[in-house]
């Protein structure tokens, strides 16, 4: 039995930043991950590879406006080069993570599957046998995995791993693509492949896509997407059949049976938390969305924390990073909570083309607060004009009583970047006047943030 101060289950975003922090404070930390590397699903199949493909799709659609067409009248993308680039980005980052890890000599990464035995003991199943650890604290950061409904023929669908993992099975842009699921993964993938030339149909079971996000935000964002993407909502998929030539996806829409034919069907029906073996046995409280934690990331068992996707609060990499640091800080301060996660200041970006990003309180969440809004349209924005992408807006929400910034969204150019400034202002407690007085860089789209704030002062 090996004794350690802290053991993390998983070595992704919910684990390693906190592990580094603890190691810097001379705590002995063991990270356990079945992959045997740090960085988790974000790098293996998530944000990094998907944004690599997405950004190449953006570059392609931007540059095709200035391309001339060959005799066959066609311009096409060499997808193998995109895959090559994506794999190279992933490899480079794996190497970077390995170097980073080796700079923490007191930190051990064990390749294996962790099983919780009790509140202080973890058994790790490794290739060379089982190892037992005793730890003062356990951080569960086991992440999430894609989930498929039990639909006939669902095994004929690919999932995001087939596109984004290293050396992926999808090697070319499908002529036609059906996407099952209108969450952010489904929409982003629909958007990037439409930009690369696929004919895309997206089927969503709920009455609208991104059903857990602000309705006005979502309808604004959807109106900016490539209109060639056919989005069908309240569509319930019943069957996927392969007739040898194409995949036929059957679904019910308005009580009628319909069918769409495509080369590839992507199943993007959501992700579920990965609950480590033993967690239920020792009574760690959870719901179907994940392990229940308070803002300090503590579970119902005092010395066990649950960070990242596994707690279901905000399944995004940067949220996991913040959560892991919060857990580390609270472990370092003993039984007293010294840090907590403020979910309202963590932005969410849907990387469609164009992207939409949101943070804090918007109209949907504003019960009890009267909001005033500052608004900026990209129509008149210099950077948006430079790119010829003038659709979309920045919208800021302020508490009418205090003029404090409580939320905001951006849809259109640079959304994923602009939301960072809004989130920073929000977490620092900025008021409308503070933002209005900012001298944002010209000619960049961030000028719209101060301009929107000036609408309300
Ligand atoms: P998060 O961003 O929430 O940390 P990730 O999915 O990026 O989530 O990382 C979770 C990591 O945990 C993945 O690399 C996964 O393989 C690993 N993992 C999940 N369950 C276990 C387990 N029981 N033992 C070891 N590793 C695990």
Automatic annotation (TrEMBL):
Keywords: FAD, Flavoprotein, NAD, Oxidoreductase. It is an enzyme of class 1 (oxidoreductase). It comes from the Archaea. InterPro entries: Class-I_Pyr_Nuc-Dis_Oxidored, FAD/NAD-bd_sf, FAD/NAD-binding_dom, FAD/NAD-linked_Rdtase_dimer_sf, Pyr_nuc-diS_OxRdtase, Pyr_nucl-diS_OxRdtase_dimer. Pfam families: Pyr_redox_2, Pyr_redox_dim. Its EC number is 1.8.1.4. GO terms for biological process: 2-oxoglutarate metabolic process. One of its GO terms (molecular function) is flavin adenine dinucleotide binding. Residues 346-452 form the Pyridine nucleotide-disulphide oxidoreductase dimerisation domain. Signal peptide: none annotated. Residues 5-323 form the FAD/NAD(P)-binding domain. NCBIfam families: PRK06292.2-1. Belongs to the class-I pyridine nucleotide-disulfide oxidoreductase family. This is Dihydrolipoyl dehydrogenase. It comes from Candidatus Sysuiplasma superficiale.
